[in-house]
Design a protein that fits this description.
single chain; 150 residues; mainly alpha; 4 helices; 0% strand
Length: 150
């Protein structure tokens, strides 16, 4: 059985799974996705920069091939940027839904539980801002390698 558990304290679930002979692997899925997107964006930025430098120094015969490679690489970058935008939108929607749910629970909760839920909602907000900022930075770094109309 494979499952994704999102809890503040997973110790009880981990002990239960391990007591039944299960093995628990920890993976920060979203952080890995965002890291992978940032890596892809940077790799494509470098490839475009390299192709542009080669194009300047290329002979007329090889310029056609390099221009084709450059166009293809720019197209790939555009696709990755679109994926990054979709991922950013999904983490925003996910964060907003979780925060609304926590706020609704907090409105019905008693003092100590209310404070804990409100604190967790604020942590989610901060986490979302940090993740969105990292994606935005990776996106902006690649901005200079696409022509203005792309």
């Amino acid at each position: 059985m494979i499952t994704e558990i999102e809890e503040e304290d997973t110790a009880l679930v981990i002990r239960l799974i391990e007591s039944r002979g299960g093995v628990v692997f920890h993976c920060a899925r979203n952080e890995l996705i965002e890291f992978h997107i940032a890596q892809q964006l940077e790799m494509m930025r470098r490839q475009i920069q390299n192709l542009e430098e080669r194009l300047v120094q290329a002979s007329e015969d090889s310029k056609v091939g390099l221009k084709g490679q450059l166009d293809l690489t720019r197209s790939k970058l555009k696709i990755i940027k679109t994926q990054a935008m979709c991922h950013a939108a999904s983490i925003r929607q996910e964060a907003e839904a979780k925060i609304v749910c926590l706020q609704e629970q907090a409105a019905k909760a008693k003092n100590e539980r209310r404070a804990k839920l409100e604190r967790f909602a604020e942590e989610l907000r901060v986490d979302y801002v940090n993740r969105a900022t990292a994606l935005s930075l990776a996106w902006r770094i690649t901005g200079g390698v696409l022509p203005p109309n792309v």
